[in-house]
Amino acid sequence: MFHHIKELQYNAKPSKPDPVYAKKLQEVLGGQYGEMTVMMQYLFQGWNCRGDQKYKDMILDIGTEEIAHVEMITTMIAQLLDGAPAKEQDEAAKDPVVEAALGGMNPQHIIVSGLGATPTDSTGYPWNSRYTISSGNLLADFRANLNAESQGRLQVVRLYESTTDPGVRDMLSFLIARDTMHQNQWIAAIEELEQNQKAIVPSTFPQENEKQQVSYSFMNFSKGEESAQGRWANGPSYDGQGNFEYVANPEAMGQVPFLKPSPAYIHGTPPTGNLPPNTNSSTFDKEAGT
Amino acid sequence: MFHHIKELQYNAKPSKPDPVYAKKLQEVLGGQYGEMTVMMQYLFQGWNCRGDQKYKDMILDIGTEEIAHVEMITTMIAQLLDGAPAKEQDEAAKDPVVEAALGGMNPQHIIVSGLGATPTDSTGYPWNSRYTISSGNLLADFRANLNAESQGRLQVVRLYESTTDPGVRDMLSFLIARDTMHQNQWIAAIEELEQNQKAIVPSTFPQENEKQQVSYSFMNFSKGEESAQGRWANGPSYDGQGNFEYVANPEAMGQVPFLKPSPAYIHGTPPTGNLPPNTNSSTFDKEAGT
Amino acid sequence: MFHHIKELQYNAKPSKPDPVYAKKLQEVLGGQYGEMTVMMQYLFQGWNCRGDQKYKDMILDIGTEEIAHVEMITTMIAQLLDGAPAKEQDEAAKDPVVEAALGGMNPQHIIVSGLGATPTDSTGYPWNSRYTISSGNLLADFRANLNAESQGRLQVVRLYESTTDPGVRDMLSFLIARDTMHQNQWIAAIEELEQNQKAIVPSTFPQENEKQQVSYSFMNFSKGEESAQGRWANGPSYDGQGNFEYVANPEAMGQVPFLKPSPAYIHGTPPTGNLPPNTNSSTFDKEAGT
Amino acid sequence: MFHHIKELQYNAKPSKPDPVYAKKLQEVLGGQYGEMTVMMQYLFQGWNCRGDQKYKDMILDIGTEEIAHVEMITTMIAQLLDGAPAKEQDEAAKDPVVEAALGGMNPQHIIVSGLGATPTDSTGYPWNSRYTISSGNLLADFRANLNAESQGRLQVVRLYESTTDPGVRDMLSFLIARDTMHQNQWIAAIEELEQNQKAIVPSTFPQENEKQQVSYSFMNFSKGEESAQGRWANGPSYDGQGNFEYVANPEAMGQVPFLKPSPAYIHGTPPTGNLPPNTNSSTFDKEAGT
Amino acid sequence: MFHHIKELQYNAKPSKPDPVYAKKLQEVLGGQYGEMTVMMQYLFQGWNCRGDQKYKDMILDIGTEEIAHVEMITTMIAQLLDGAPAKEQDEAAKDPVVEAALGGMNPQHIIVSGLGATPTDSTGYPWNSRYTISSGNLLADFRANLNAESQGRLQVVRLYESTTDPGVRDMLSFLIARDTMHQNQWIAAIEELEQNQKAIVPSTFPQENEKQQVSYSFMNFSKGEESAQGRWANGPSYDGQGNFEYVANPEAMGQVPFLKPSPAYIHGTPPTGNLPPNTNSSTFDKEAGT
Amino acid sequence: MFHHIKELQYNAKPSKPDPVYAKKLQEVLGGQYGEMTVMMQYLFQGWNCRGDQKYKDMILDIGTEEIAHVEMITTMIAQLLDGAPAKEQDEAAKDPVVEAALGGMNPQHIIVSGLGATPTDSTGYPWNSRYTISSGNLLADFRANLNAESQGRLQVVRLYESTTDPGVRDMLSFLIARDTMHQNQWIAAIEELEQNQKAIVPSTFPQENEKQQVSYSFMNFSKGEESAQGRWANGPSYDGQGNFEYVANPEAMGQVPFLKPSPAYIHGTPPTGNLPPNTNSSTFDKEAGT
């Protein structure tokens, strides 16, 4: 259950309206890596958590904080929109700066939301839940979280440098600092989990069941070998189970695929009879005697 | 530019048809973390790469390999669908096993694709490019890649254990091994980049511009303090710039938000006059004298 | 800002696992009218609210409650999934009931979320924010809210009657009761607003600017006049400004549309010259002398 | 079955081209509450109608009218696009007004549709059918319809005030008047249905099956009690079955959720053993002896 | 403007309910190539038409017919759903055939639409307008239409053969016949247009502006030359302007791409200095002296 | 399996940056008919191909070429973005041309992709796989391919004429030429297939099973008969099986639809009893005695 505190977690006070910037700021509200994404991702990971209570609690703490971040940015955007040009713009529109501003706004900020923030990104594309993941494996999910905080902080930094409004920058400096913490936090949690299991997700799959001869091979699928210079092509692997190998000319290991003609009820295009050799004995025949 | 080699990278030969399993296998073809995602993510990261050529080359090598993985799974699904029940099912449908199979299939595998794989996930939801990221910052993107390979390997392992078909398992054991390599690879590349910059993305944002007093604080937004037990709440931070701090009762630091009534052309609901104290001098007035 | 309370608002304890029902229950979690929708709709309406504080507070109170509903249903679904069939299903699959259950499950509940709830509806379609509205006009939005609670309660009732599990029914009986309250609440709030303005949204548009001769006409666009029997075709209108009129044979009042051939850079299909009479004097010519 | 009449229902004649306005006008064509939404919503409600014929007929009459509204707006947009800047813009682009216009256009109006309207909203987002509802319960659906006409009229009014073109305003004044009628119509139909059943949808669910002690409680989930001032917190409820009650400090009524560790085939993160007290006797044990 | 005729264009009377088939039949209602697609595609092409009136009229005639097809299938699906299993299924569910049926149904047909058709495809994915095209070039669009009718008839035929219900087959035989007509119709219209212009869309682009040395080359991007056997690799081209040529080993004609490091405000990953030769004189320098 | 060649298929070198044009060019990269669409469509058609090997090979050859086209356009867009305005734009923004450019850019090109191309269209809408089709019937799919190349070439031509940059035009002239070839190619392949089967897809459905009396009728669903003038209304049909017939006043051939009231568990709106005559003997009774 949740309670609402009327004060914002941190100030969200622009120095002046800026409806064009409001459109851009939507990216970190309702974009792929915006605050809605981490809010919903953490809440679902927490609610679905089947691991230790300390993880469930930690994840829900940060998830609850992210609702407050969504609240801050929403509030900020609504105030930035206070300056949207009014009706009967014909006079103003002869001023190219005003016209340019109108061109740069999201029209839905007037027509649909009436000077309110929308749960969309900076192109107006609606947020959807496929931006989130809750897999049931905490190491996998903490890597998703570290990625989300990395992409998110990168975007907020770019937005910080796209404005000179001291009020907007003040709020963004808070979000950037929290993202600093959250990247640190997920790195810490990842290290803790990796110490209890191996680095490869999932750590519980028996190694003998994977095709081990290709488990540490970097395969060069192009002419030229610049890709041989990296750490990924030399030295021990990070799971401590092998050594990286650089395969300059990887060979195909599989069959030339051949699909049986479709049965009549599919109404496909029947082959004219030029089948490849041995294809009358089908894949299935050879493999399993079906 | 690209060339096609007719042989598959590895065998894709099921032992027998299994159209219900074909539906499930779609998840790692066209799902959020399926092979289409890593294929497109790596190709776009490579094409957009503004870093060292060795990174561009490495990313495109693995992107090119992933096209081959899409090819393998597509080929496998098409063969698994060879056993889809034929037309005029009325007799067969009295057999509950056949009827159950029909219920478990994706109907589009017959109606739309005519026994072919579809670029969708296991619920039939189409793949879309918001599953991918290419941010222009390699450390951020390599974390995205490590996450994608972690989620992807987890899903393939679950699918491996959902079948006993030796042909399917053979192919999946190859994909699992490649995911082992690719997780190792991204860990290696991440470490290499972190050695050249700090662990926090982006590393180039001046620390004095963030709100440093909250950069290392874990905030407990719930009753109870199980979340205090983790590495994220104690000890030095991972960027080497501070120490984690556990804030048991985080305080709100921001204003009670107040939005100005909307102008007439918005046709909103006007307030009846019970404004909070001091709101006739608006946010903007107080902050910037506008 | 928000705080999390570890206890659920109400019990979410199934009597036994039921993974097929878990799939259905997703509808009221992540569907068009599920709890995620009202949660996000109310939160955004509250944060964007430019009306009286009592409305802002009221909307955020209910929005905060809805987060708790999302939490309850997520928790319930995760427990219903405890009974998902395990790996190596081949033996069990010969039992048609088990096979049927597998066919009726959402495969992502195993492959993607690892026995966790997903932010999707009962077909696996992801939640998206176009399910919500925050328009800046409270009367319009409260009608959206009344609709959402009406559709939502209807769906929960249907789900209640699709199970006999007493634990599931207990939780749903709570949600149904809250939906009873919430429908009542929005009816009350709508009445209050309608008393301060007219019933037609927006009430502030000057009536003389609309085409008043069609403001109260029910137009019959079919043969047969069953539609004449309703309240909408007789008596005073509900805004108190007119009387309903039944137009049995509505006439077209507009022009036969004609579009100018496209300019060359569009590379359209040029007309061969058989223009309708008078079209060389185009619409624009007649209207504005362009 | 349907017939087409070549005349428009009402005039759609702009006074001059305005491609930037054409982009905005798309909102009420293909947006969430545009004419395509009500057209498809009413048609599906009518075709699916299992209630009295007079309702089926009425719904299909208005659905048929809405096709004509889609036709009018499409025609209007195509004409507004006649003024899109031509190829070889380099000279013109030095004129900032022209450049601004180009920036404010939807580029697909040239590249994709060749100066035609598109079935999308004002950000270019395609219309989709999740904007509509046909639930099988007419009272629920008429509330959806009243909401759609309220949001729709609000948006058309905002668009009316964003232009001074007399031809555009003439068409919009017609649409606004029809929305006046349609709001009146749905209010009338709702009242008629509410007189035959209770106000709470669905009216047929036995009241004893809901958790009646919370059916009329307004719960205050925040500090401060501004929300106590509304009609929703005092007096008799609107279904005539109870009295509103204001709960200033709602208590959690549910369990602290605990999920069982996932089985091995899920490859989740196993708990380290610090289970909460009594959790070895799981939820299911307590409830149903499983 | 449109009128509704209460009779269906053709009978839609199933012989018995079949809710599992209802799910499948959704594909040709709300799928990628369902009747909603052709309905909306033709209506928008007609309304946007800038060519001869005979084309505009013809397109709108068929668009109007397609509304009737949507109506027929919707009506059929609603009746097929009459047999959906009722509440309190526990007894019935012990019958595996009933359980299988439940697994094969779309759960939204009960929970959301209350035994009504939904504007979605057979996986429950909502219809969206990106399925349609109206380009302003009739030859391009008629090819889109021919494709849509080809895919559509193929799907209806597969559905015809998936049932033995004589009432369903009767309706589908009508739709198949209309698709026969509509394929013929678009072939006829295409031929007519091709006689007035060249076969390549758009026919108005000056041939000297394209890179003519590759305008008729089939390029073999794989080992092996099976693709040399087709008509596309030999003989005169279909636009009468050249001869097909088979290029067994196509050479790359472009540069090795090199992107400039991003400016500081992007916060990308700076290259370490190992630039390829000559890259300090950038692309732009060489081309345009910028 | 695939190999990457580091050289582009053709040059992608703009003469100068142009971030506004970069936004437009996205249409033919990630739009409905962009290069990603044909790339994925051809690859899936090839991998799923159950027809002659020469078709499979041919389709995969062109699919492989399309990957190279995606690569070229991506590279071009990244370079066009080199000119995006830098941070701290306040000074520049006073220049209306700069401000206009900012308004015309896709903000995600800075915030999200850091001056890289995105897999989206010109409005920022993400590419999704429902843009593609692989049906199992080659004639149907080749018509889809011909349409895609027609729409694609039309869009590239429009983009060619929207710029004067000689480097951009050079690349586009290559793509236009390849689209010339590809339209020719699909026309050739279609003709080859039509010679082996009939022109109507699918050719294998028995003609006696369709409702032949409407297989060649053009139905006029409007007042006025302009649509009678086309080839589709006169002369022999293109499948050689009939003659086109113009039906000036098509009659309804179906029933007035009537749906049974929904069962109680649906909680619909019960009819008040005014049923149409004979409806107590339901459709099902009359048809099949069920």
TrEMBL record, chains A, B, C, D, E, F:
Q: Where is the composition biased (Low complexity)?
A: 268-283
Top-level taxon: Bacteria
The major lineage groups are: Bacteria, Bacillati, Bacillota, Bacilli, Bacillales
| Stretch list, region Disordered | 261-290
* Family note: Belongs to the manganese catalase family.
Task: List the InterPro entries.
Answer: Ferritin-like, Ferritin-like_SF, Mn_catalase, Mn_catalase_C, Mn_catalase_dom
Q: What is this protein called?
A: Mn-containing catalase
What Pfam families does the record tag this protein with?
Mn_catalase
In which organism is this protein found? Virgibacillus litoralis
Among Gene3D superfamilies, the record links this protein to:
1.20.1260.10, manganese catalase, domain 2, chain A (3.30.1530.10)
Please list every transmembrane segment annotated in the UniProt record, as residue ranges: none
